[in-house]
Fold this sequence. Notes:
The chain is mainly alpha-helical. It has a domain at 3-88. 58% of the residues lie in helices and 0% in strands. It has 2 helices and no strands. The N and C termini lie far apart (120 Å). The model is unreliable at 1-15 and 20-25 (pLDDT under 50).
Amino acid sequence: MGDETRGRAGSASPPRAPSASPATATYNPQSLSCCKRRYCANCQSSWEAKAGYLCICDRLFLNLAAQHVEMQRLATKNESFAATYYSLRKELSVAQQELQRLQTDMGAITADQEQQLRMLLDNI
Length: 124
């Protein structure tokens, strides 16, 4: 049978399909008919069509799908971090305003105490 059934002469076997991946939930091997042939109908590359092996087009599709799922997960996480950041910045602003108010009150109280102390010293 020669090179037609074995794929390219001297080429390594393509990687196996991932067994458990978030992208495999959307992957439908029946929709990719080139997986059952000895060459890929999309990229025209020849390779050994064994069960569990994918051509380059299918591997790229799975890789792209996995990256899409990862990007969605990161976008959701980013939205959560942005909301947390916003609420923490708001709390920080309120705390800084409270601190400024307390420092102003503390200065007024200190000045009042010094005035009362002077009055007591003047009376003595």
